[in-house]
Amino acid sequence: MKRIVILGSSAAGAKMIEEVRRNDTESEITVVALDGHYPYNRDAFAAFIAKEISPANVFYRTKDFYEQHNVRMVFDQKISRINFKRKKIFTEDKQEIDYDVLLVTDTPENRYPNIKGTNKENIYGYKKLKDIDQIVNALPVVRTVVIQSDSFSGLEAAMSFIKREKEVILVSSENGFLNRHFEAEVLQWLTGALEEKGLRVMPENAIAEILGDKDAKAVRLQSGKVFSAEVILFMETDEDLRLFSSSSITTGRKIEVDPEFKAGADDVFVVDQACSLCEPDPVTPLPVLEEQAKAVAAVINGQESVFSIPVCSWSQKIEGIVITVLGCIDEDGLTVNRIFDQESGTYRGLYLKDNALVGALLVNKENEKASLLGNIFNKTLFDFSTEEQGVDGNCAEEGCYAGEMSDENVSTELIDN
């Protein structure tokens, strides 16, 4: 009988429990919830902020799931250190948790960019539900939200606050999502359209300093401009890896793992944002987390472990603007075919690798989503060298690609403790 310990509240941990229990009903399984919540789905944060779903739907499984799978939940313990040789976890109140297998799905704290003032109140990350809870509770008295992000999730979060009728300022570096993927003409049109909805976009102008006494009151951007704000949100926070400083574990910004998600220490696995194989976006898509969990569970169960990244899609809508990302658009070496029609307010970017379609970025072209997902899944070849090639083709078989959240991926009962 093994002792399996899961650190963190990522949905990957809950999915691994489900997979392990298919073959193993005897092993002890313990989840140490580093931020005090049952495992949750970060894909649901934006919809939760926008009040499009209930709090219950943020959680990956109901409370009954953990009871039925004989899982011990630990909510009130802070980890002080881990002895990887002895396979022991020590808590701040001197308790010990022994393990035979350790799965790391999260790290204890946010590590903000090296900016003056990040130690003030009203500053949050986007990877932990405790931060999202605090933001949502504060929103009734919040007027302005400043978000720093270079990712699509940052744009998605910004649009969720707009839906709550907040003034939102989205700042990014020169490598921000909008800058990376839209040419100047399209960027000017899109940012103008977003500003009409209340979202002010400040590309190539990241935060230089956070102003205020105990509470953050404003930000100063690299350009020198100052904006007041009651909430400051950093999407791309680094991982807090102090617990994992071990000669057997290699860390940089993440924990280094092999293709089976094994870290250097014996019987230690790392998934989600904590591992070096994570998605570049700060929100790892739920279908990817589920595949990571299946791969780890297979190793634990003594089976062959095979991990492949599923085709995922994300859409964000706000008053006449629908931005959709399909598949992979951030891998190095991709070629892009772009079509922009300002008169109709539509844009399509197709991302190809060796002439095979691997991703797409759409604005107000939801009618092409299903067809493009099928082409991405089937690795359809496109050739734009001679003339425009239309977008058609059959969809992949149902279940072959991941769309928005389905009912089975979210809880229907509030299970937070």
Characterization of this structure:
This protein is α/β, with parallel strands linked by helices and 417 residues long. The protein has three domains: 3-109 and 240-310, FAD/NAD(P)-binding domain, CATH 3.50.50.60; 111-234, FAD/NAD(P)-binding domain; 313-377, Enolase-like, domain 1. 20% of the residues lie in helices and 25% in strands. It contains nine helices and 23 strands. It has helices at residues 11-21, 45-49, 63-68, 129-138, 152-162, 177-181, 184-196, 286-300, 369-377; strands spanning 3-7, 28-32, 71-74, 79-83, 88-91, 96-98, 101-104, 110-111, 123-124, 144-148, 167-171, 199-202, 207-211, 218-221, 226-228, 231-234, 238-239, 268-270, 313-318, 321-327, 335-341, 346-353, 356-363. The strands form six sheets. A five-stranded parallel sheet has the order 3-2-1-7-18. A five-stranded parallel sheet has the order 9-16-10-11-12. A hairpin with a 4-residue loop joins strand 21 (335-341) and strand 22. Helix 1 (11-21) packs across helix 8 (286-300). The model is unreliable at 392-417 (pLDDT under 50).
CATH topology of the largest domain: FAD/NAD(P)-binding domain
Q: Beta-sheet strand percentage?
A: 25-35%
Estimate the helix proportion, in percent: 10-25%
CATH class category label of the largest domain: Alpha Beta
Shape estimate: globular
Task: Give the averaged pLDDT, no decimals.
Answer: 90
Unreliable stretches: 392-417
How many separate domains? 3
Q: Quick one: biggest sheet?
A: 5 strands, parallel
The rounded distance between the terminal residues' Cα atoms is 29 Å
* CATH architecture field of the largest domain: 3-Layer(bba) Sandwich
Radius of gyration equals 22 Å
CATH superfamily of the largest domain: FAD/NAD(P)-binding domain
Give me the side-by-side strand order of the main sheet. 3-2-1-7-18
| Beta-strand segment tally | 23
> Number of helix segments?
9
The assigned structural class equals alpha/beta
